[in-house]
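Q: I'm teaching a short session on how sequence maps to structure, and I want students to see two examples side by side rather than one. Could you give me a first protein with its sequence written out and its structure tokens following it? Keep the formatting plain so it prints cleanly on a handout.
A: Of course. Example one:
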Amino acid sequence: MYAQPGMYPPPAGYGQAAPFVQPPAYGSPAPYGAPQPSYGPPAAFGGPPAYGMPGGPVFGYGGVVEPPTDGLAIASLVTSIAGLLVLGGAPGPVGVGLGIGALRRIRRRGTKGRGMAIAGVIVGAVSTLVCIGWVWLAVWASSNPVVASGLAFHDEIPDYTLRSDLVVGDCLREYPDSWDLGTAEPVDCGEAHAMEIVAVLPLSGPVDSSSDPTDAGYSQGFAECSAQIERDAPGMLDEWTVWTDVSFPHPDDWSAGATTAYCALATDSPSLRGSVLDGSVTGPE
């Protein structure tokens, strides 16, 4: 059964409108009990991020500039390497000094090249040690008569007197690495030895041993000695382990009767046994 028209209850009435309150003038306090207006900060819209904030765009002409490589670091490495390879390590101290200066300047200026500076210091130190070694070797060689005479071979013949007490068939245990054949005493050729006197060669004139191979007497002496050894012990000569050795008298001793040279078969260690003269000689294995 549907309700009849007019039976619905009347709608509720609207509440009384609130009285209008006049807002206080700007700068004057609101009446007591009235709600205080709240003024918040305006919302930022589209503002640029603060300078230096992460994620912000990089400003400035040309973008980020890389720091340059320190010139002293490059100079240190180049000086040290060149000194070690070319000049025997002499510029090593200079390379060390440049490297230390570069490290200090890199720390102060923030430039690049620390690794190069450290490498320059290390290589420079090695070069310095090499240079000290060369100086020490030169001093030692100059104070050692045997070495000094050997170093003088290419400049001038040293002053010496060739011994005259050896005869054909004498074997020497050690190789006398000196111009005068030293003072080594002969031993039995059946024992291990490093040298055997094969012949005594007559000379037609004084021979300057320091001028080979231009001196004709020098070349002739070696040719005759090699031929003698090859006849008595075929195949014995070897340019690396067994060789022909000829000891000439000093040219200044020629007028005093030193007119012969010793022809010998020689090695650098006692590794010969037997004699060349009877063909029983054996060499290093």
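Q: Perfect. Now a second example for contrast.
A: Example two:
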Amino acid sequence: MKKSLLALVILGAFAGAASAQSSVTIFGKIDQAALKRIGFNDKQIGDTAGSRIAFRGSEDLGSGMAAFFAFEHRFLPDTGGNGSGVQPTAAVTSRFWEGFSFVGLRTPFGAMSLGRQYTSSFLTVQNQVDVFAGETTAALRDIGMGNSTVFAINGVGQVRVADSVKYAAAFSGVTLSADVAETPAGSPDRPYSVAGSYTGGPVWVGASFENPAGAEDRLANLGARFTFGQFTLSAGMGNGKNNASVKLKSFLVGANIAVGTGDIKVGYASLKLGSTDVNKRFGLGYHHNLSKRTKLYVDYAHDSKGFSGALPVIPQTAILRTEKKGYDLGIQHNF
């Protein structure tokens, strides 16, 4: 009996040590708002941030090495259906792991990962300078960084690529990343992007270059942030050309002002193709933090032109108009 108990204790100790070397985390966000989207004149209950549930895990392999994985599902909380990949203004997808799905190996010299992933350009630079974080009606990123084609914005860059290989490393405030993917079916080019950023105290700066899947398209981005006291100022720009060799120029500026437990957000973004002003957006919002994970928010946005032409399908029934104003009042919980 004593030997059996001793054996169970030893096995339990080894099992505990083995399990302690690996971990799996569930995380994500859920967002709902009463809103009116730019381009439509009806009022809706909708998602302004891309609600999601995701899983990530890692296993310590010793000698500074670890295996890791992550995958993410996007969904629409108001209907329970599949969600969009970027903003809710993007087309709803049938792809279950729309967010990302990859596996990789981390070493003392950086990490290699394979699968469906955010591009280095998007994750390292394009997603770092919008004070609205690419969320809510007032999101500036797609216009100001020229990185998306959703909702007839006519940007160039890709947010994610499938069948990709990525390398990323961070050391002494410097982050470096590069990725390359298989040529998508029907496309002439193999997409790739490279990016780097530096963080030192209150200053962040980043730069990236991206070659999407088209034959002619290119996009370079610069971004910067500076924090002093309760103020954070940010700016970004994009320069490149679309697949018709038309030059693209874009920029955004923004400020986040911490006031008590909330944040006042204000920003402006512009996108130009050739000599044509595609769109300009002014955004203003207040986000009140109930906790570190939950906030209430209200935002207003005004576009110079609104949207027209062929647009992706949105789950809620809407009447297509060239409406230039939008607003939202919502709640978001991160877990």
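Q: What should students look for in example two?
A: Point them to this: The chain is about 10% helix and 50% strand. Also worth mentioning: The chain has one domain: 24-334.
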